[in-house]
Specification:
441 residues, alpha/beta, nine-stranded mixed β-sheet, 12 helices, 20 strands, elongated
Length: 441
């Protein structure tokens, strides 16, 4: 299976450069969970060491992008008002954390280094104008006579007040956004995580303005939106053709950090957004995003639940662990080739049944069909309850028009016999089982 996945990744990687963007759910690594979440510094040295580990240990599994999340541009992350800007009011990296950005180099040296490893480089951006530029009344590149303070409007971003939105009815509004994304293109940025602009912070005009600015650069960006608390299908349908991935949940740090919510939001939103899996995106596809893979899950069963749901729902897979000293074996749950193949090459992904205690999920059963292995079907049995539970799915639910199939447990990597008309399994509390059904007849 591992060899097959590697071949499929390679085929998609070659074709995507020629044909379309994000033809499969994007994969990579993001710095927020292991570094900035608790306000610790994240530096150029940290990113470079991470990129080397991604190259050596995880790129073969399709993880190909490293992203610097929030606060790369701020000298004082707690206030959000002391970031360095250029003469046109565009945020620059904090030289104390990114020394190669000195003398106006910006992120180009870092991007060049990441590219030299055969990887892509992404950055987090807030929506959209740094307060420094407003205070300094910076001129807008490409809009003579206008200054940044004239196009800035208050934008409710509860976790960082140092950023304002753009008045898109102003004649210089688009010009400012164009100048920002031309700078990112000049740096060689490949991936943009545009924060505080979707779901509860919805600003479709900004999302589409960014898309227009990206087009004008003639540079290729993969475009991501966050966060996703309260995201709706209507919101997704209003922007999916502008982007490649968009969060459909709030920030995720594992069920232990979610209080009474546990897995509920992710199970509910994954099922709700089934109609948007592999919908059209800008010059390619777009994908509902269940957020970064949490680095705080304390049990093997919890890791299996997370990866099973993310892969069956075909969510982007963004590692949120400190991987500088980790191998693929250490993070076995992110490198299961059979699960990754479901994420990469399956169709008809859907929740087929669930059980609830009141409104609270206890179990969820998902189904899908492989587009890489002819005649192979998948079933995922997820138990977020507090006791072992017998779970089953009929062949009709799984879309199988046969009498018997061979069954393989994809987490245990072993054949488990045959199934006739249905498949049943007892799933331990807080765990998941994923099986492949094949050679059906």
């Amino acid at each position: 299976a591992h060899l097959l996945v590697t071949v499929i990744f390679g085929a998609i990687s070659c074709s995507s450069a020629q044909q379309q963007l994000a033809p499969t759910p994007p994969r990579g690594w993001n710095s927020w969970n292991p570094f900035q979440w608790e306000q610790s510094n994240f530096t150029e040295a940290d990113l470079k060491a991470t990129a080397v580990s991604i190259k050596n240990n995880f790129q073969v599994y399709g993880y190909d992008t490293v992203t610097a999340d929030e606060f790369w541009e701020l000298s004082d992350a707690s206030s959000g008002t002391k970031g360095s800007i250029d003469q046109y009011g565009r945020a620059l990296p904090d030289v104390s954390q990114w020394p190669s950005s000195a003398n106006g180099e910006g992120f180009k040296p870092v991007a060049d280094y990441v590219h030299s490893l055969g990887l892509k480089f992404g950055i987090h951006v807030l929506h959209t104008v740094p307060l420094d530029a407003i205070k300094q009344k910076s001129p807008i590149l490409g809009a003579d006579g206008y200054t940044v303070d004239q196009i800035a409007v208050p934008h409710s971003c509860p976790w960082n007040k140092g950023w304002y939105g753009v008045n898109m009815s102003h004649p210089a509004g688009q010009a400012y956004i164009n100048s920002v994304y031309q700078l990112y293109a000049d740096w060689g940025i490949d991936f943009i995580k545009n924060d505080c602009t979707f779901a509860q912070n919805m600003d479709a005009s900004n999302i589409w303005a960014v898309r227009k600015a990206m087009e004008l650069t003639e540079h290729t960006f993969v475009y991501s939106l966050s966060p996703g608390s309260g995201a709706t299908l209507d919101q997704a349908r209003s922007i999916n053709n502008a982007v490649h991935m968009y969060r459909v949940t709030g920030d995720w740090h594992g069920p232990e950090k979610a209080g009474t919510n546990g897995w509920q939001e992710h199970l509910e939103q994954a099922a709700l957004f089934v109609p948007m899996i592999q919908a059209s995106g800008y010059l390619g596809q777009s994908w509902p995003d269940l957020d970064m893979l949490a680095n705080t899950i304390g049990t093997d069963g919890g890791q299996r639940i997370q990866m099973s749901l993310w892969c069956m729902a075909r969510s982007p897979l963004i590692i949120g662990d400190d991987v500088r000293n980790k191998t693929a074996k250490d993070l076995w749950y992110y490198t299961n080739s059979d699960l990754l193949l479901i994420n990469n090459a399956s169709t008809a992904n859907r929740e087929v049944s669930n059980t609830k205690h009141g409104d609270t999920y206890v179990t969820s059963t998902w189904a899908a069909e492989s587009t890489a292995l002819r005649g192979t079907f998948y079933a995922a049995f997820i138990n977020v309850g507090s006791s072992s539970t017998a779970m089953s799915a009929s062949f009709t639910q799984l879309g199988i028009n046969s009498t018997t199939c061979n069954v393989e447990d994809l987490w245990q990597h072993q054949a488990v016999g045959t199934a006739s008309g249905s498949y049943s399994v007892t799933v331990p509390a807080g765990d998941a089982v994923v099986v492949a059904l094949s050679a059906c007849k």
